[in-house]
Amino acid sequence: MSDNLDSSVLRLLDANANRAREALRVLEDYARFVLDWAPMCQDLKALRHEMTEILRPWLAEAILHRDTPGDVGTAIKTDAEQTRQDLSAIVTAAGKRLGEALRSIEEALKTANPAESAKIESIRYRFYEIERRLALTLRPAGLFAAVRLYVLITQSACKRPWLATAELAIDGGADCLQLREKELPDGELLARSRQLADLCRRHGVLCIINDRPDIALLAGADGVHLGQEDLPPPQARRIVSDRKIIGVTTHNLDQARQAVRDGADYIAVGPIFKSPTKSRDFLPGLEYAAQVAREISIPKVAIAGIGPGNLRQVLATGIRAVAVTAAVAGYDDVAGAARKMKEMLKT
User: Fold this and answer.
1) Residues 113 and 162 in one domain
2) What is the pTM assigned to this prediction?
3) Cβ pair 324, 310 in contact under 8 A
4) Per residue in 212-239, pLDDT tens?
């Protein structure tokens, strides 16, 4: 074998090198402008430069054999190529295009320089891991997008029995309920989770379980909500699967950005105000809510100390959903309290 390649193989290298660089640029721009993820940008840029360096001995000649007008493939298109449903589809298509291009380059180089072909193979395998990390960030649109009023159900915060409170909150317009019970034994927590999941399913609202992806899965809930000290979202995803929602509590922009990279479907933003339900020694407040509204693309829910008296301040930040406990569950008229909050959120 030699480093000399015939015209047809050089054309193949030229086309696939262009295809790979273009795909890498799409992925790099996604990491840069959507995820704001500097290390991922660096990893993708390094692959692009490394591939170009490996192919340098052939590409200067390969471009001389390019024949775009005579390329029979330029006229062959499928309907799927002409449309992209959303950003997720764009990124996914770029990833598949890159893997295919690298494989074509790898095979072509085996006829000339097996050692350089092996280097391209190494790049391809390294990209597969990058593709996996990027895939975590691509969540289906709409799983949580319609939620405006999110009510946390904790028996100790309820004026009425917890399940009756949950049903009344739904009657008042709650879009999503979360079971938040930190102290219950696992068996009782699972039993309550199943009851709430069944209630929510009958009424067509979402059911989220706090902290426990295993309980959420066993109960048939719609998802799990994780704190900063809980199981990381990628590991929770292995338990609950892609079909479930994962929410993550965040207190600063770094945590919010990381939640997006980890594949969260939504983030909780706060604490916004001091809360009688949970005392904290820090308060990111409305300023943090406004930062998230500007910079984070996935659904976000403001949390802590929110009620009718300060709801408009929250909405002024740009956030359109709130999570509450006392403002709904803490009233005798649970449905009325929920209805009041929902009407304010609508307007």
Assistant:
1) no
2) 0.83
3) no
4) 999 999 999 999 999 999 999 999 999 9
